[in-house]
């Protein structure tokens, strides 16, 4: 299997007769193995891929470590707000012992933090891929066409893009969920969330790619391709697209961060509101429509749910003396570190690929 790489060198040549040199662009055919080896030589990419592999492995191991997915939690009428009592981490290195909840357990959810993070990897990685990849594909396509063709096509496409960019992501998704949730079947909240996110998240990709494509289309190698008789589609896919992808790599981690922020915020508001009203467990067991739109069930293992429930519990215990980080510090710090490391892995991979695509790095 082979792949085409972006132009590798730009060098001036002189015919020796005193005439002005011309720019020569060299395209080299690369095997897939060669591309991967060159990427792995970038320290940032190798480090990011190593970190990301941990999350992928946790998602693959989740069905074996936690074969059943929670869909309901036991209700204790004496502990309405605290469905199950929280417990601290039981991880002991000397001697090594995992215990029932090695990373601790928060209230409200009914499962340990370790299960929420490991089993939640399947759901969160699916959400990120289901939103970020289609958004990038649509945005790249729109931006590439607008930047290459220009004129009225550029004006129409960028007007639509700017309209979506003027609408904050949080407000758009919340309005869509509020207006359409009563009209969808129970349990289809995540599908609505994915569609609403894609509908607005492709716009930043389109704007970034359009700017690069509009610049690249005037390059000498693009003009040479047109002069040699290359079709517009070939010029776009073969010459302009590979040299317009660098901004996309920077936008993907930002998109994932926005998705994660919305998940955590929506879950936090839901948990905090119901914990204050004293109906946390009772409401969610009897009324599944009250579930936030990003998870199939109230106590479905998910990163944002685990972090949000932990933060709610920590905030409730902060005033207690003798607990500078709150009696339930593990509920906020451990999931927060997990999500931070995941974001760092995406940033490192993006930086490594962008460095590999840089013409200066390939000379």
Quick recap of the structure?
By secondary structure, the protein is mainly α.
Topology:
Blueprint: E1 2-4, E2 9-13, E3 22-26, E4 29-31, H1 32-40, H2 43-65, E5 92-93, E6 96-97, H3 113-118, H4 120-149, H5 151-165, H6 169-180, H7 189-216, H8 220-227, H9 232-240, H10 246-277, H11 280-286, H12 303-317, H13 330-357
Antiparallel strand pairs: 1-4, 2-3, 5-6
Helix pairs in contact: 2-4, 2-13, 4-5, 4-7, 4-10, 5-7, 6-7, 7-10, 8-9, 10-12, 10-13, 12-13
Offer a few descriptive terms:
mainly alpha; MetI-like fold; two-stranded antiparallel sheet; 13 helices; disordered N terminus
General description of the model:
There is one protein chain. The chain is mainly alpha-helical and 363 residues long. It has a single domain, classed as MetI-like fold, CATH 1.10.3720. It contains 13 helices and 6 strands. The chain has helices spanning 32-40, 43-65, 113-118, 120-149, 151-165, 169-180, 189-216, 220-227, 232-240, 246-277, 280-286, 303-317, 330-357, and strands at residues 2-4, 9-13, 22-26, 29-31, 92-93, 96-97. A hairpin with a 2-residue loop joins strand 5 (92-93) and strand 6 (96-97). The protein is globular. The two termini are 24 Å apart. Mean pLDDT is 74; it is low at 1-29, 72-82 and 276-291.
């Amino acid at each position: 299997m082979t792949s085409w790489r972006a132009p590798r060198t730009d060098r001036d040549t002189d015919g020796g007769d005193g005439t002005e040199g011309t720019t020569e662009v060299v395209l080299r055919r690369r095997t897939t193995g060669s591309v991967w080896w060159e990427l792995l030589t970038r320290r940032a990419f190798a480090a990011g891929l190593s970190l990301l592999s941990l999350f992928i492995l946790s998602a693959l191991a989740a069905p074996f470590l936690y074969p059943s997915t929670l869909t309901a939690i036991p209700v204790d009428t004496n502990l309405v707000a605290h469905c199950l009592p929280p417990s601290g981490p039981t991880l002991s290195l000397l001697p090594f012992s995992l215990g029932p909840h090695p990373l601790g357990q928060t209230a409200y959810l009914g499962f340990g933090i370790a299960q929420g993070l490991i089993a939640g990897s399947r759901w969160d990685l699916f959400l990120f891929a289901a939103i970020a990849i289609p958004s990038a594909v649509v945005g790249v396509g729109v931006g590439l066409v607008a930047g290459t063709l220009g004129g009225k096509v550029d004006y129409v496409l960028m007007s639509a893009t700017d309209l979506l960019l003027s609408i904050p992501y949080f407000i758009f998704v919340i309005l869509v969920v509020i207006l359409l949730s009563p009209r969808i079947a129970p349990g289809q909240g995540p599908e609505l969330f994915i569609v609403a996110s894609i509908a607005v998240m492709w716009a930043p990709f389109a704007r970034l790619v359009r700017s690069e494509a509009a610049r690249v289309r005037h390059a000498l190698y693009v003009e040479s391709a047109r002069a040699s008789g290359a079709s517009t589609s070939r010029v776009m896919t073969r010459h302009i697209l590979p040299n317009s992808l660098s901004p996309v790599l920077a936008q993907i981690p930002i998109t994932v961060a926005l998705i994660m922020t919305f998940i955590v915020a929506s879950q936090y508001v839901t948990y905090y509101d119901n914990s204050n009203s004293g109906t946390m467990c009772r409401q969610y067991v009897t009324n599944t429509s009250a579930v936030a739109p990003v998870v199939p069930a109230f106590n479905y293992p998910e990163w944002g749910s685990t972090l949000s429930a932990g933060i709610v519990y920590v905030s409730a215990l902060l005033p207690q003396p003798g607990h500078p980080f709150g009696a339930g510090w593990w509920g906020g710090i451990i999931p927060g570190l997990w999500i931070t490391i995941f974001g760092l892995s995406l940033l490192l991979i993006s930086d490594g690929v962008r460095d590999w695509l840089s013409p200066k790095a390939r000379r």
